[in-house]
Amino acid sequence: MNKVAIYPGTFDPITFGHIDVIKKGLKLFNKLVVAISNGENKKYLFSSNERIEIVKKALFHDLKLDKKKIEVISFTSLTTDLCKKYKSNIILRGLRAVSDFEYEFQLAGMNRKLNNNIETLFLMSDIENQIISSKFVKEIVKLRGDIKKFTTKSTIKSLKEKYE
């Protein structure tokens, strides 16, 4: 049976926390769709196309993950509609801290109301990556701090180019 999971997020930019969730998801599923949200309710540093390229470089160039098991896409629809399109009943979400749980719990409940066949699976990144957020990574690089411990080389390059 070919089990597919959808891992939605903004990935603005991708961090080692996201990557931990992706690697753990690959152990559980045959295929992972990394779905980059392009909703209009957020202000993004990188465009949708830039985020797709940054994620692909991080996963396939920097980390050499299996291109056959990961698909990177952009979407503007409901995540439940994306699940239908990819014949998946699993939404993968990462949790960092208790503060994430309330929002993620509500989101999972709403997705379940939209389609009661969909399950949300929560995975935690490794302990050393649980404090990382894209917001903090952007703030640190903007202030010319060192972000090697938070994301991949190609992502760092993209961030530095954006702020120069």
Which terms would index this structure?
single chain; 164 residues; alpha/beta; Rossmann fold
Structure report:
By secondary structure, this protein is of the alpha/beta class. The chain has one domain (4-163): Rossmann fold, CATH 3.40.50.620. Helices cover 44% and strands 19% of the residues. The protein has helices at residues 16-28, 48-62, 79-85, 98-114, 134-142, 153-163, and strands at residues 4-9, 31-37, 70-75, 90-95, 119-124. The protein has a five-stranded parallel β-sheet. The longest helix has 17 residues, at 98-114. It is globular, with a radius of gyration of 15 Å. The termini are far apart.
Fold blueprint:
Elements: E1 4-9, H1 16-28, E2 31-37, H2 48-62, E3 70-75, H3 79-85, E4 90-95, H4 98-114, E5 119-124, H5 134-142, H6 153-163
Parallel strand pairs: 1-2, 1-4, 2-3, 4-5
